[in-house]
Amino acid sequence: MVGYAYNRLSNVARGSSGSASNRDFAIVKSIVSSVPGKNADEETYAEFKSQDDSTNANVIVLQTGYQSRSNIENEYILVTYDIINNSGEYRDSVFAALYMDWDIGPSGSNNIAIWNKSKEYAFVQNSGVDALPLVGMKLLSNQQVNFWAIDNDGDTLTNPGVYDGFTKEEKWQMMTGKIGRDTSSKTDVSLVFGAGPISMR
Description:
By secondary structure, this protein is mainly beta. 4% of the residues lie in helices and 44% in strands. The protein has 1 helix and 13 strands, in the order βββββββββββαββ. The protein has one helix spanning 168-176; strands spanning 2-3, 9-10, 25-34, 42-50, 59-67, 77-85, 91-100, 111-116, 121-126, 135-137, 145-151, 179-181, 189-200. It has a 6-stranded mixed β-sheet with strand order 2-1-7-13-11-12, covered by helices on one side. It has a 4-stranded antiparallel β-sheet with strand order 3-4-5-6, with no helix packed on it. Strand 9 (121-126) and strand 10 (135-137) form a beta hairpin. The longest helix is centred in the C-terminal third of the chain and has 9 residues, at 168-176. The radius of gyration is 17 Å and the shape is globular. It starts with a strand and ends with a strand.
């Protein structure tokens, strides 16, 4: 998700209907994998571009992934996003975020999403089965982190869920609110994790 206002937001996350995703990005270059890569054992690369209309951010995104096959480093993947302002206008408050809906265990039940304040990373785990994987995310650049732990069945202003739809206003609230909600309930969860504001010429 990339935008500079709730009504100038490009994304392919779950949409306001609750059953279909938004389709604001078009694929410019489908993902390709290189083994070995230039800087890692495996690298992936893709390009996508937001639709050029009055509701989108008008950006091009270059996504590169890096994965090592060593015993120490094979449990994480590094991903970089180069975001190019395609509008020709200066933007001083661009926000970028990922919407992640991890289902750890059957149907994602008893999951919990948490922001670890002391180490500044987000993670999701199954609160009932310790043997299941734990998934973490951390921002490695120096931008402001924005995070929101989502109860997918939430239905209030302070706990908006996604089962009843995920509007652009809700997305904007979550991707610009710093640490807006640091812990979800134990339920089927998702999260928004990103950076901003970012200046783009």
